Amino acid sequence: MESAIQIQVNGQVRSWRSGTTVADLLHDLDIKAERVAVELNLEILDRATFDQRLLKDGDRLEILGFIGGGSL
Amino acid sequence: MADDRLIIAGREFKSRLWVGTGKYKDFVETQKAIEASGADVVTVAVRRVNITDRSKENLLDYIDPKRYTILPNTAGCYSVEDAVRYSRLARAAGVSDLVKLEVLGDERTLFPDTAGLIEAAKILVKEGFIVLPYTNDDPIVAQKLVDVGCPAVMPLAAPIGSGLGIRNPYNLKIIMEMIKVPIIVDAGVGTASDAAFAMELGADAVLMNTAIAGAQDPFAMAEAMKYAVHAGRLAYKAGRIPRKLYATASSPIEGML
User: Fold this and answer.
1) pTM for the complete prediction?
2) Which of A5, B98, B125, B227 has the smallest number of Cβ neighbours within 10 A?
């Protein structure tokens, strides 16, 4: 049986199976990789590496995209 | 005016009206208003993706990046570090190297922290970004932004979302005369005459959001802004008459009884 890891995604802690890559996580969340930026423990990832980046217990992931905005 | 194209950092823009995508009721309204404005540059913000409710649609499903130049902003950033971080995230999200750089200094006025702005611009230009900075109507700051490598400068007309119009036309005019890169008047426009006025002063473009999105009929206002920017540009190119205190008759005296 695969062990679970705890990952903080956009501020929410969730369980994932160990061996999950960034690409797997995006797929599980139904997020299109080409529309987002991913920051793993404050490091901005190159999209081309999403399927090679293995997540580990305690990782902090931020997934950002574009929303409506002028100025704020 | 077919050849009257706006060129910034080698990129050509057809429209001199640029619009934001915030404050609309939904994406359909956003799309229709942008369509009515004729703008080909649209600003967007960078925020966390909603991971709990994936039914929410994506803005880029409605605003096609192939058709529009997507200009991500660093709205909401109050420090150099945050502005640089959001710029890098915007680039990583994959649209382009363009960024509308905002480093805000105060929540009530949303005026820029110009010292922080220059510092952030310097860092981002070195990283290859095309930095379009939202700045104050200060000609010296505008020049410093150009000196660190900004290919255009975006001075405010009035506080963001205020609708006060062109509060300091004289400073804007000085910026337009002194600064040798395109000047985009950003923020503070309330209605069509404000946009026309900015263009008549010699602005290369006008960027607005609230004036359209907040109007009672955003589509009609978007269209009004399109004509205002075009009319203002034509008037600027045409060259207005000098102001005189006394009358000059338009009809000849000769031939009168």
Assistant:
1) 0.90
2) B227
